[in-house]
């Protein structure tokens, strides 16, 4: 039977790092008054780091009195010592660092080319420094976009921008965005903006790069047309212009036809004017905001928004949903029990419950405009409803039924999950049950098991 004592080995290497015994490497980290001398062992650095192995073999270092000399003015002594400790014993503690310092450490680690540590720090930033990433995702992108190995951090920052892009696209920072970062944004399928807004923003950005060019394209000379064509050229293939209305295309895009590919302009004109003519081109699919749900898509939230406002003959589209839907509870993640439901959802205000019926594509659920609690009591409201989509992929199968004013609109019992209606029109207990009483019949089965279910907090924007 093999015997291992890896923890003792790790501790011994950490003691060696701290002791300075028989070191043969001197590293000068930092610059000017902040420079500090650090000591290490070339054999360990060679063994544990590809960067140092290359550095020693290619003689990137000077040698003095039998010791290798490294100078790293662009990495602080604090960060270099943390990196060395990781090389020696695989330990690092990020808890005491603020977000900006974690980012600086990440960039230093990338220079030393320790990929496993780079991946760990990115994961730590994403999971534990969400507020820092949320405050300045563009600034972080500008700091890291040239580092090809930072893809996890890129995507996290881009996702945050794409969730509420209006904040950034309407800010003064947008027009000073570097072209490669604008390109990354326009590539995103989850950029939650109407395509005509994307176009308007792109044109605004192009004008900002050439402030001396007139805003009216009919006034441009040949040189100005060339400048603008070269500026917009790299972005045009990223636009989804077939998903712009014919009116917006003629009014807002067609005036710039001189800087657009002629075949693209022709194809979009044909698309709108001769819709039955088959076009010899690939049409990009429209952008879709990333769904926060594993059960439903953004279109369902748009319909919920219309039902909440009792606009049953009018549906919002995914671009103008007036509510935020924040995931509070996911049964397969949090535990399919009444206790877990109340722990996650009590006293959170208005909520939507969404349930997928097991072994089918039917989804059912209900809206509580008040709040859940564990008071073992009923609540009255005229604004609650239950619903069903016979096929969640077919929005035309939707049915909604509002409370009839019965005093038993929703029930808040600690032994149950969500309960709608005095006759348990939709009730979670050991399983799910339904019977029409307080709400009209929307086609929910009398008894069913849930494949999964979710609860979303509803907050007016």
TrEMBL record:
Residues 23-96 form the BTB domain. The lineage of its organism: Eukaryota, Fungi, Fungi incertae sedis, Mucoromycota, Glomeromycotina. Residues 294-459 form the TLDc domain. InterPro entries: BTB-POZ/Galectin-3-binding, BTB/POZ_dom, SKP1/BTB/POZ_sf, TLDc_dom. This is BTB/POZ domain-containing protein. Pfam families: BTB, TLD.
